[in-house]
């Protein structure tokens, strides 16, 4: 038997203790998944809307454009419904059920839109205008002089689920890590388990190493569950090429949050204090660190504040590799910050560490 | 020849409280040694200094020839400790608990079942520790202290808060552990427990050891009277006063009690009067020793 066997057996004991704790299981695993389902379900549909156009009677220009739409690009942006009743179609546009209605008389295309929603109307008009231009150009029989190739800076599927999967996972990891570490430490101390462990010849690093290993294992399960749920067709998460970088991100995030939890647990005298302080740390961090809403559009001061929270770096790094489809190295600075937090926290926690209450 | 434990001039202060105030004693290999005293006497503090959980302000301690402070990884595998407050990993069964503690010492998992049997908990192997009764938890805690086969075992009030039957069961377990050749140091505030279990007892009060020796010697060294009691009415009080050897006679309406330094003469005289119905004879106990040493009734 070696230190490694002690490590394995301790890890097993702690894992069993966690698995049998219904409350912890709910709050670390199920509760964040519920948030994912709700947020993904509510916001997931918004950004997928296409330009909704009603064709009143035959509109050959549109039909031709759709017929020659080899790449399917037009089909992705345009949803065409055909109607013969002109006044019913206009009514729909007025009510906002459709973005525009078009009629063609001879070579004249008429677009009806509602002035109530300028943005949607503008999008519809722009799209229809480009279709007419292409048709004109094709009718001239000449090769086009200018060509435009367009390329999105982000993956064009950056939908709500692409944002919520990494950032809600970040929140789940942060609360599991901080909570788990602070509670474990305070419980072990107040219940005398630390003194008992001190009387055994096993190095204390083995004991804490086992606790860290269990947390990392649980976090990877959380990651797998999040990815599995978010990739269901209903939510439609599209994993980007470098998604596997989420694994080192999750590991360094867990280390950072455990370390913060250890500081709280080493400092707090009672479980109640530890619990309250944990909430005070995790909730603001989740909000301001960008777990519940994207910070891209947030005011500058809020963005600046967000960078004092380690969770901000985890969210950003995971969003880069999982949601935005950036390369694997895009998460390295964030990993660096998280590991730094882990080291500083561990040093502080070691300083504050006490074997027993008195 | 070195002692298994040597303690010399131990002192420990917590703020205003002088918890241990100059304690010295030795424990021999294989001995069953008891520290007896009321609550707050300083038993736990003394024990925890010897185990290496606390640092003494003054004094020398050697355990199996080694200093226990600071944390001594060479000493730890050779001692087993049952702390006053049992401490278990949460939500593990009795067996898992033992396996986990065992693994800290490099003990294979299968040893757990043998330990459970030793302390009579084999039928509780799969019960979570939170569901064990007080006595069962104490026994599990002792099993955890023994799982790595230590030469020297420390038990801090192992039978506190147990009902009489559970205490008796535990005594059997402790005797068996001692017969296996292990040295045991036990603290208790039960006089009878110390008398029954220990080879030698240190009587402790207010941080000091008042007397140290085998229980029988301590009691015999005492010039305390024996008490003979019979049911009230068996013998008139006046007759009892006239018995040869009777020092003092009292009657509380339930029992007639005769104090004497010559119990055999009194009993013989009572037998002649055919007045021995329900007779009970109490010799001096450690309680009398405590009373004589401190001038106070012993109250745990
Ligand atoms: N950690 C502590 N801090 C302050 N006082 C303590 C502490 N532990 C024990 N004491 C005090 O020291 C004295 C001896 O306590 P203890 O060794 O626990 O006695 P016992 O085990 O005989 O009941 C008591 O007066 C107790 O209140
Ligand atoms: Mg005590």
Automatic annotation (TrEMBL), chain A:
Residues of the ABC transmembrane type-2 domain: 125-356
Q: Which UniProt keywords apply?
A: Membrane, Transmembrane, Transmembrane helix
Q: Give membrane topology per the record.
A: Multi-pass membrane protein
User: In the record, what lineage is assigned to the organism producing the protein?
Assistant: Bacteria, Bacillati, Actinomycetota, Actinomycetes, Streptosporangiales
Question: Which PROSITE patterns would you find in this protein's record?
Answer: ABC_TM2
Give the protein's recorded name. ABC transporter permease
Q: Name one Pfam family in it.
A: ABC2_membrane_3
Subcellular localization, per the record?
Membrane
Membrane-spanning regions, if any? Answer: 24-43, 208-230, 242-268, 280-302, 331-353
Origin, by domain of life?
Answer: Bacteria
Q: What is its main location?
A: membrane
From TrEMBL, chain B:
Question: What is this protein identified as?
Answer: ABC transporter ATP-binding protein
- Which terms in the Gene Ontology molecular function aspect does this entry carry? ATP binding
The residues the entry assigns to the signal sequence are none
- Superkingdom as given in the UniProt entry: Bacteria
- What is the membrane topology noted in the UniProt record heading this document? Peripheral membrane protein
Annotated PROSITE patterns:
ABC_TRANSPORTER_1 (PS00211), ABC_TRANSPORTER_2 (PS50893)
Annotated keywords: Antibiotic resistance, ATP-binding, Nucleotide-binding, Transport
Query: Native species of this protein?
Result: Actinomadura yumaensis
Give compartment(s).
Answer: Cell membrane
> What sequence ranges are listed for the domain ABC transporter?
5-231
- The family this protein is said to belong to: Belongs to the ABC transporter superfamily.
Tell me the lineage of the source organism.
Answer: Bacteria, Bacillati, Actinomycetota, Actinomycetes, Streptosporangiales
Which Gene3D superfamilies is this protein grouped with? P-loop containing nucleotide triphosphate hydrolases
């Amino acid at each position: 038997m070696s230190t490694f066997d002690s490590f394995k057996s301790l890890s097993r004991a702690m894992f069993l203790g966690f698995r049998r704790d219904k409350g912890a299981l709910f709050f670390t695993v199920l509760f964040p998944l519920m948030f994912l389902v709700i947020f993904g379900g509510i916001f997931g549909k918004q950004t997928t809307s296409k330009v909704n156009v009603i064709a009143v009677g035959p509109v050959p220009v549109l039909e031709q454009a759709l017929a020659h739409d080899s790449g399917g690009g037009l089909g992705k942006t345009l949803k065409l419904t055909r109607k013969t009743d002109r006044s019913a179609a206009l009514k729909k546009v007025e009510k906002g059920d459709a973005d525009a209605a078009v009629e063609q008389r001879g070579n004249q295309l008429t677009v009806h839109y509602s002035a109530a929603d300028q943005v949607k109307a503008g999008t519809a008009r722009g799209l229809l205008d480009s279709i007419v231009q292409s048709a004109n150009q094709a009718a001239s029989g000449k090769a086009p002089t200018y060509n435009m190739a367009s390329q999105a800076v982000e993956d064009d599927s950056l939908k709500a689920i692409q944002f919520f999967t990494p950032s809600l996972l970040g929140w789940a990891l942060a609360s599991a890590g901080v909570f788990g570490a602070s509670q474990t430490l305070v419980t072990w101390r107040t219940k005398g388990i630390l003194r008992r462990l001190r009387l055994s010849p096993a190095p204390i690093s083995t004991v804490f190493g086992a606790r860290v290993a269990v947390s990392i294992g649980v976090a990877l399960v959380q990651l797998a569950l999040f990815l599995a749920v978010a990739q269901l067709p209903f939510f439609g998460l599209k994993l980007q090429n470098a998604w596997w970088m989420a694994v080192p991100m999750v590991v360094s995030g867990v280390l950072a949050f455990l370390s913060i939890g250890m500081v709280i647990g080493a400092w707090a005298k009672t479980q109640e204090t530890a619990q309250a302080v944990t909430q005070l740390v995790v909730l603001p961090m989740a909000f301001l660190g960008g777990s519940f809403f994207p910070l891209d559009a947030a005011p500058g001061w809020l963005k600046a504040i967000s960078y004092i929270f380690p969770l901000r770096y985890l969210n950003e790094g995971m969003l880069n590799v999982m949601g935005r489809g950036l390369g694997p190295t895009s998460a390295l600075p964030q990993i660096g910050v998280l590991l730094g937090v882990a080291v500083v926290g561990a040093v502080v926690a070691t300083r504050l560490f006490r074997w027993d209450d008195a | 020849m070195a002692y298994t434990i040597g303690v010399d001039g131990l002192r420990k202060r917590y703020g205003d409280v002088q918890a241990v105030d100059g304690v010295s004693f030795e424990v021999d290999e294989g001995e069953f040694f008891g520290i007896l005293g009321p609550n707050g006497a300083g038993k736990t503090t003394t024990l925890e200094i010897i185990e290496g959980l606390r640092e003494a302000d003054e004094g020398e301690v050697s355990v199996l020839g080694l200093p226990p402070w600071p944390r001594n990884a060479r000493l730890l595998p050779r001692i087993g400790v049952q702390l006053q407050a049992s401490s278990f990993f949460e939500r593990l069964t009795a067996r898992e608990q033992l396996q986990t503690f065992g693994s800290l010492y490099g003990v294979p998992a299968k040893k757990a079942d043998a330990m459970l049997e030793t302390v009579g908990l084999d039928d509780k192997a799969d019960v979570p520790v939170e569901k064990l009764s007080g006595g069962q938890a104490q026994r599990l805690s002792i099993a955890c202290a023994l799982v790595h086969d230590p030469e020297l075992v420390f038990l801090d009030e192992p039978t506190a808060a147990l009902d009489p039957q559970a205490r008796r069961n535990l005594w059997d377990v402790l005797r068996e552990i001692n017969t296996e050749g292990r040295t045991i140091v036990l603290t208790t505030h039960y006089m009878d427990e110390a008398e029954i279990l220990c080879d030698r007892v240190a009587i402790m009060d207010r941080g000091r050891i008042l007397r140290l020796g085998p229980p029988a010697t301590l009691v015999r060294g005492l010039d305390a009277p024996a008490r003979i009691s019979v049911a009230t009415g068996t013998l008139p009080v006046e007759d009892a006063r006239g018995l040869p050897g009777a020092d003092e006679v009292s009657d509380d309406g339930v029992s007639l009690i005769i104090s004497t330094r010559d119990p055999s003469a009194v009993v013989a005289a009572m037998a002649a009067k055919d007045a021995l119905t329900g007779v009970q004879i109490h010799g001096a106990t450690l309680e009398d020793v405590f009373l004589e040493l401190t001038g106070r009734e012993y109250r745990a």
